[in-house]
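Supplementary Methods, section 5.1.

A reviewer requested that the exact input to the structure prediction be made available. We therefore reproduce it here, unchanged from the version used in the analyses.
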Amino acid sequence: MGMRLRSIVGSVLCAVASIALVACGARKEEAQPTSPSQSEFKRYQIAVIPKGTTHEFWKAIHAGAKAAAKELGVDIVWKGPVKEDDRESQIAVIEDFLTRGVDGIVVAPLDSSALVAPIEEAVAKGIPVVIIDSGLNSDKYVSFVATDNYKGGKLGGERLAELLGGKGKVVLLRYQVGSASTQKRERGFLDAMKQHPGIQVVSENQYGGATTETAQRAAENLLAPLKRPDGTLSIDGIFCPNESTTVGMLRVLQDAGLAGKVKFVGFDSSPTLIEALEKQEIHGLVLQNPFNMGYLGVKTMVSHLRGGAQVERRIDTGASLATPENRDDPEIRKLLEPPRE
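The structure derived from this sequence is encoded token-by-token as follows.
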């Protein structure tokens, strides 16, 4: 009987010891470090500041920024001037975000010089900045995420030269002074024209301004002295370097019954411009990828804030050419009709 009791007690002690070992092992496993999940990152607040808020281009930028914020678990605050010539308003927006103390700023400077001081002030206060769309006359930024605008302008110029068979008279309606992105497009276009001695640029110093309405008035003034007595134009081709100048010029041509009768290459996309491309009133649109620009602008900032791999100093978001012939290509269609806010 004593032997049997000792055997039972021994068995119980062994079982208890085994349970204790398992429990200790479980606690040890629980103590093992795990890789941080997205929820364990700080929820950063990032200001995203466009040049303006009315053009379709900026709506696509906003959609891309929101997609990145949702994917990465951060908050964005979208705020910018209504018009793309309101430098004071954009500066005031940046200064407001400095006061609020956001974690980072993603901004498209509407003037390459006027925005230097407020952006450098942000950096001096420990708020990193990612530049999108248009350049800045400063190197105080984390990364520059944008189209190769010179290449885009040259692409538009080459398309117009092709349409004209390398000869004829053309005009350029510029955007506005101080906009680095469009200045590079305009230079790319003019450099492309220099490669074709048979093409004469008869006007290159007119500016459309920040809105479609100002661009329309500028286009009327540009074309008026170029009309013949019968109402036709004495030029063969037109290039415009952004959405508002392209739409403004298109309206003037349509109102005069001249749409489609002169070769016309523009920049960017909107429902109005897509319809004109389908009707062959526009013969080429240089397309950026604004959704990707907004997305990569925010993603690059988050990567910098989280201290992961070193971000690229310059990120090219690409440029493509839409024509009446390739407008239904799936990849071109995505760029013609990007997601918008």
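The chain has two domains: 41-147+290-318, 149-287. These observations are discussed further in the main text.
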